[in-house]
Design a protein that fits this description.
By secondary structure, this protein is an alpha/beta fold. Helix content is 34%, strand content 30%. The strands form five sheets. The protein has a seven-stranded mixed β-sheet, with helices on both faces. Strands 7-6-5-10 form a four-stranded antiparallel β-sheet, with no helix packed on it. Strands 8-9 form a two-stranded antiparallel ribbon. Helix 4 (118-128) runs antiparallel to helix 6.
Length: 305
């Protein structure tokens, strides 16, 4: 009985699920726990090790795998047709996404660039005793290696990891976005994912006047790579920031937004629903029951009868 969790965080979800499964199995006497294999997937070995510690009392029932969220089949291809549950929480909204806009019948790609103003860069450089040209280089290094290794490699600027964290907070607080609209020759020539063209977007983006929407490239790659892993009776359950109707893009703003040290965008739920339908899967959306009134929505996907 294969259960897969993508984006395991600190392992609390896995521990709670497994502990409850054990209690239910004992209560019903079906001996399912003996057959259970719980797979934890994440891009970070450090996160996986921390999560593995949280579920250590479940022994060899649990395995930890380094997984690229946008290409799950590379690591998890052996699961094809076997997973009874794939559980995902707060992963899709962090994955890369393009934005497209339809204005007066013409389709554009919205290209976005992150930057610091000259004044903000000067303030950060002065605060940490570095030259202004070094600010962007140090930001790149910090994103690649993290605060601990940056502190070790540049002790003059960052005597301790907390100083590197303070540098990131200053840069993050000053970060701005600028954008431009680039005309597309046609949706059919736009590559949505490596396996999917923008043809599928016609009904969503060109249906009803001017609109600008995310196309959730990373989430779509992850989702379409996950569906083939499901057992015929299996399902995907995902908690995230989902739009559930394309009309919402005409009435509100859904990112990009700066949140907790990262950039998040709401996920284009109708697009995932449409792509899944073409592959023989049904997708349903429901409010997140554990936190009524929150913006979190639960997506459930499973093969149609």
């Amino acid at each position: 009985l294969y259960i897969l969790e993508l984006g395991v965080g600190n392992g609390n979800q896995a521990r709670t699920w497994l502990d409850e499964f054990v209690q239910l199995d004992r209560r019903h006497g079906r001996d399912y726990y003996r057959r259970l294999r719980y797979l934890m997937g994440d891009y970070s070995p450090h996160v996986l090790e921390r999560a593995r510690t949280a579920v250590a009392h479940h022994g060899d029932r649990v395995s930890a795998l380094v997984v690229e969220a946008t290409r799950p089949s590379i690591t998890l291809g052996f699961l094809a047709g076997k997973a009874f549950l794939v559980y995902i929480s707060n992963v899709y909204d962090n994955l890369p996404t393009d934005e497209l806009a339809c204005i007066h019948g013409r389709t554009y790609q919205v290209q976005t660039q992150a930057f610091l103003t000259d004044d903000d860069a000067d303030l950060i450089a002065g605060q940490f005793g570095i030259d202004r040209p070094a600010v962007s280089k140090l930001i790149d290094r910090l994103l690649r290696v993290g605060p601990e290794l940056l502190s070790e490699s540049a002790p003059g600027q960052f005597p301790a990891p907390k100083n590197a964290v303070e540098f990131w907070r200053a840069a993050w607080g000053a970060l701005r976005l600028r954008e431009r609209y680039v005309p597309l020759e046609g949706l059919d020539s736009y590559q949505l994912t490596p396996d999917l063209t923008g043809e599928i977007l016609h009904s969503l983006i060109e249906a009803d006047g001017d609109v600008r929407m995310h196309v959730s490239n990373g989430a779509l790659s992850s989702f379409t790579g996950t569906l083939p892993l499901l057992h015929p009776f299996g399902r995907v359950q995902c908690h995230d920031l989902f739009l559930t109707g394309s009309d919402q893009y005409r009435t509100g703003f859904y990112g990009p937004g700066k949140y907790d040290g990262s950039v998040v965008n709401w996920v284009n739920g109708p697009l995932l629903q449409l792509v899944a339908s073409r592959r023989g899967f049904g997708v349903q959306f429901a409010p997140f029951r554990q936190r009524p009134g929150s913006n979190i929505t639960t997506l459930t996907a499973q093969a149609r009868d």
